[in-house]
Amino acid sequence: MRAGAVWLAVWMSMGVAAQHEGADTLSRFHRAYFDGIRLLVTGDPRAAADRLEASLDLVDTVAAVYYYLAVAYRDSDRPALALDMIDKALAWDEENKWYHKLKIELLRGRPSTEKKFDARTRRNGFAAEAAVVDSARHLIRTLPPEQAWERVAALAMQYPFYPGVLYEAARAAFELGKYDETIRILEGGTDFVADRPELARAYYRLLADAYRRKGNEARARMYEEKWRKLEK
After folding, report:
1. Is residue 123 predicted with pLDDT exceeding 60?
2. Measuring CA to CA, which residue among 21, 5, 18 is closest to residue 61?
3. Which of 32, 195, 202, 231 could pair with 54 as two cysteines, CB 3.0-4.6 Å apart?
């Protein structure tokens, strides 16, 4: 099964959060997953592994989680565990070239210093991020709203360290009235926009709008204040 299809089943089920008892589990999965990505990007692979393991305890059918857990294990010098996780990622998404590339690196046993997750590359790879953002915007422009949301949500899961992609997924959710999803996506990505004020303003403005649509004026005003501070 393709990773995107599995992730969509998870993320779309969040859309009925208010009515289903599994919503809390899915919310905790989402939080643990993005916590893990944040810790991996900021250079703490052991803590990242802990949070990604926690996400797997909640939902164990998303290939990307196994992949990033493999990266976290690799970067914390646990190659056997890393290899086990990349095999599990490939079981869910056998055609993913990045998963195959990581498995080859692990099997070759290159020194860990050659393979560390480069946070600066991931965070500052603006050209690569821009290409994915352009793809997301194209999907939003050309597909029916529900279908666009599904496709862009899959991109957000595949590229969780690209805050621009997260914003486009949140925007697609907002346009469909999926305010809970909008909030989960953006609040999970706020750490990634700390050094990008223009994108941070967009995050905070959309968060304020989503909270206001949900009737939470206090949270809406809190994010409005953050957004206006960045306007000065």
Report:
1. no
2. 5
3. 32
